[in-house]
Amino acid sequence: MTLSGEVHDADWSVTIQTIAAETGGYRCRIHVTFASPDGACERTFAHSRTHDTEREAAIDGLRAGMTWVEMRKSNTFTV
Question: Which domains does the chain have, with CATH numbers?
Answer without folding.
Answer: 2-72 (3.10.450)
